[in-house]
Amino acid sequence: MAITTNASNTYDPTASAQALTDKYTADLQARITEQTKAATATSAGLTSMKMALNNFTSSLLSLTNGKTMVAQGATLSNTAVGSATATATAAAGTYSLFVEKVATSNQISLGSIGGNAIPASGDGTLKIKLANNTDFTVDLSTANSDGDQTLSAKEIAAAINAEPKNNSRVTASVITIGGVPQLVLTSNVSGEEGALSIDGSAMADGDLKTALAVKPKQLVEAQDAVIWIGGKPADTSDLSNRVKQSSNTFSNIDGVKMTFTKAQADGDAPITLTVALDTSATATNAQSFVDAYNKLKAVLDGLTDPGDPASSKAAGAFSTDSGVRVLRDQLVRTLRETASGALATFGITAQRNGTLALDTTKLAAAVKANPTGLDKAIGNNSASAPSGIAGKLDKFVEIWTSSNGQLAQRETSVAKLQKTLTERQAKFETDYTTMYNRYKAQFTELQILQERMAQTTNMFDALFGNDKTK
To answer: Do 144 and 123 touch, CB atoms closer than 8 A?
Structure first.
């Protein structure tokens, strides 16, 4: 670099030091930046692939583990009476039913029992009894909360609800009718086994014991549900097809659950329960399988995409990674081989681009002809006994997702690389600062020298510039 002694030739040490430092470090920084960018892309790609593989495995497990792709449906001819559902094991058919009663929970009113004196300790034991013999006691001697030395219906209700041995079997509340508060007990045990009664015999004599001894008013009777399978017979003594229970949900027909909410009137015709193939739900299950595979393939396709420089389309994170391409190709090959056979029979076919498509019309016809064929073809990916296409696909995926599989190894490797690059970047920045400071000190000295030379030049100009002997 040529330096003149012209005073007008100003010099900036900071800019010169930075320019020279950048010149000597630019290539190294570019390499570190490029490697960091590649490592970050690889890490993001591994995360994306891990999520896709795990989602695919979870989808297969939820569709096939202990389940069936083929769905059965159950419907009642009168939906105002109730509803029904069926599992895949339910046998197709029709059944006649008559709903005589629906189960109800007992509710009683104890009338006006408030305003009585608080019983002494040990003399305030109230027993609440249920027909299923799950009784519990409440100590009313500690129920007073406002300190007025009397018990209100609200205080008694609070004591019943707070009793640990109650276990929410009975709910106490207060209803005011005509200005008079009434203690109301509601059984949370459905049917006749939840019928309520109270026993205050252990209490000391007094107004409270007398009030509790009054027979409660039945607001809602405890009642079991009663249905007749095949309809109610004319012979009232024939109970052979009568089903009575405390719950309104019945499972007497294998694989079918029926929940009734309304009883039929005497003389009503029986309702009809129809159990049959649910083509819509079956198609939904099959489409879920197709979607799960297509989503996984889309992620793998994106990660291995070679890109297109002509259209400025960037390549995928694993465009040159043979391992990821092998995984993708194995999945496609397995689906093509199977989809051209058993799966194709059920309307699941492989497309030219490797994705799957579902023909619901063909699926419905095939399942009707062979109800167990679809499950056999798809199989399951259970750990104990994998089978079918799901088992084969899961086998490939497990090579990557197992605890010491490809994903775990690659994640460890890229994490180490990122740590190394972080350390290299930190060292680079330290070296950059050292080099910059050295150059800046040198250029500062040069600037000082330049200024001194300029001052000397100016001095000689002043001494000899007006010499008249020349």
So the answer is: no
Residues 6+ apart with CB under 8 A from 9: 3, 450
H or E stretch at 170: strand 170-177
pLDDT digits (tens, 9 = 90+) for 196-230: 999 999 998 888 898 888 999 999 999 999 999 98
The 10s digit of each residue's pLDDT in 102-114 is 999 999 999 878 7
| pLDDT tens track for 446-466 | 888 888 887 888 787 777 765
- Complete DSSP assignment for 322-339: HHHHHHHHHHHHHHHHHH
**What pairing do the DSSP bridges indicate for beta strands 125-130 and 196-199?**
antiparallel
Residue position matching structure tokens 């579902």: 358
Give the up-direction half-sphere exposure of residue 79: CA atoms within 13 A in the CB hemisphere: 3
18 vs 48: CA distance, rounded Å: 40
Q: For residue 204, what are its two tokens?
A: 């000391």
CB 100, CB 264: distance < 8 Å: yes
